[in-house]
Design brief:
36% of the residues lie in helices and 26% in strands. The protein has twelve helices and 19 strands. Strands 1, 2, 8, 9, 12, 14, 18 and 19 form an eight-stranded mixed beta sheet that branches. Strands 11-10-15-16-17 form a five-stranded antiparallel beta sheet, with helices on one face. A hairpin with a 2-residue loop joins β15 and β16. The longest helix has 28 residues, at 157-184. It is globular. The relative contact order is 0.20.
Length: 476
């Protein structure tokens, strides 16, 4: 195996550890399946302002801009990871930017499923409706195209607080894991000394974030509500399914720029792009390779095929078309960037329904399972993204950077997109009606990539679904 691939694997073992590992002070995330964009997807601050301003701007032009960027983001974060599968410790894959869309598969589940109909008491029906209304709210907005009022679904104030505090907790865990892993793997003497002196501070931040989530983020209330709905709906899912279908229909929106429909998805914290809070400084050098390559995330993809090229060049700013045979001197290699993750919000989506044992596909519809629950997993939806991982301020240092600078410049002049592994170095990228440009500059032996890009997703691996209970006899 090429030395360059070994280094890239080790580098991403470290990133994976920061995002998914844990200990008794910060338990590991349940969303431990990482899918990497190849190459990274560039985002500018203006592309994410819809999460701060909402969907109504000061005039028609700003409103169209907010809707367009919301549509672009929603489509990007709702692509379903491909079915290459994953197994054991190998929890990673490539994010298939040409794959199925989550809302299409989810709508099919609601439309083509049968559910248990065991009968609910009036008290249970009232409680389910009350609890659902505490989690999701519907409000009226004017359609920018037709001027007609329409109903849209969004997170309730309680759910917004829950997800905001959950995201803050993830930030604290991310910082703690970064410091802990750097010290545990002896990245450098400063990292070891920092954790030795300040471990209690980093742990306290994790505890405080959890306490804040419980006290001000309705953590226990939300999880009790979810548990009650799951328990009651095991005997009768008809009311919940009808409510979910109604919420999904009301969540449908149209992008006036492309006249395409989408289901709004946002993220928490909504203003992460406007400040430095929650960003973790990441560094990796050739000296770290041997240590991190020994960790359990050692296979780049479950089918044994490498998903990283070295330097790659693609047309239309999309997937890499051609790999470079040039080699970089990694004896003095170093890479730095800032890293953060945001929680994806989908008010129209109920993963609890997918995990419920009181539904199945109608036999005559011929629908394939969402997931077979096996290892490796196969199905229409083996996983779905729960968090988006962004990076910014990339700096790659090597004594061979001058030769690569020449190759990059020539490729960009030809209109090609340039990447190194899953990192986008430069070139154009198309988003619906807008074209964006990733820029870079060279400073001696260091290549600096400007701006922010979406690097990866943390995903929740779906167990066997549907997985209907054999005790259910009445299906409708």
């Amino acid at each position: 195996m090429a030395y360059e691939e070994d280094l890239l694997k080790a580098l991403f073992n470290k990133v994976s550890g920061i995002l998914t590992s844990g200990d008794e002070h910060a338990p590991a995330s349940k969303s431990n399946y990482i899918t990497w964009c190849q190459p990274g997807i560039p985002f500018q601050a203006e592309d994410l302002q819809f999460a701060v301003k909402g969907m109504s701007g000061k005039d028609g032009e700003e409103t169209r801009q907010l809707i367009r960027t919301a549509s672009d983001f929603s489509r990007t974060v709702n692509l379903i990871p491909n079915s290459h599968g994953f197994s054991g410790a190998d929890q990673r894959d490539v994010y298939d930017q040409n794959g199925s869309v989550l809302w299409d598969v989810y709508k099919d589940v609601l439309d083509y499923s049968q559910v248990a109909a065991g009968g609910l008491t009036e008290d249970e029906k009232e409680k389910i409706q009350k609890f659902r209304n505490l989690m999701v709210v519907t409000k009226k907005e004017k359609d920018i195209v037709t001027d007609e009022e329409k109903e849209v679904t969004e997170d309730s104030p309680m759910m917004k607080a829950y997800k905001e505090k959950s995201a803050a907790y993830d930030d604290a865990v991310q910082e703690y894991n970064s410091k802990r892993l750097a010290a545990m793997n002896s990245d450098n003497s400063q990292a070891v000394q920092d954790f030795s002196l300040n471990a209690s501070t980093y742990r306290r931040r994790v505890r405080q974030a959890m306490d804040d989530w419980v006290s001000n983020g309705y953590k226990e209330d939300v999880e009790k509500i979810q548990a009650y709905i799951k328990q009651v709906s095991q005997k009768d899912l008809t009311l919940l399914k009808a409510d979910l279908q109604d919420k999904l229909e009301k969540s449908k929106q149209t992008d006036p720029n492309s006249n395409s429909e989408f289901y709004l998805s946002s993220f928490y914290p909504g203003n992460f792009v406007n400040n430095d809070k929650g960003w973790t400084q990441f560094s990796f050098s050739h000296e770290n390779m041997e240590t991190y390559s020994k960790q359990e995330h050692t296979s780049v993809s479950a089918d044994g095929k490498g998903i990283w090229g070295l330097w790659t060049f693609g047309g239309d700013g999309g997937y890499s078309k051609e790999k470079s045979t040039e080699k970089m001197d990694f004896e003095n290699f170093e890479m730095k960037f800032s890293l953060t993750q945001v929680t994806i919000s989908r008010p129209w989506f109920s993963p609890e329904f997918l995990l419920n044992t009181a539904w199945k596909f109608k036999d005559e519809m011929g629908q394939k399972p969402l997931s077979n629950g096996k290892s490796p997993a196969k199905g229409q939806m083996i996983a779905y993204p729960t968090s988006a991982v962004f990076i910014k301020d990339i700096a790659i240092s090597s004594s061979d950077m001058s030769s690569f600078h020449e190759s990059i410049s020539k490729s960009l002049d030809l209109g090609l997109s340039v990447g190194w592994g899953p990192f986008r170095i430069g070139g154009k990228y198309k988003k619906s009606s807008k074209e964006e440009q990733t820029k870079y500059n060279r400073d001696g032996d260091t290549l600096n990539v400007e701006g922010m890009q979406l690097l990866a997703f943390k995903c929740f691996p779906l167990p066997k679904a549907p997985n209907p209970s054999p005790d259910i006899t009445n299906w409708i």
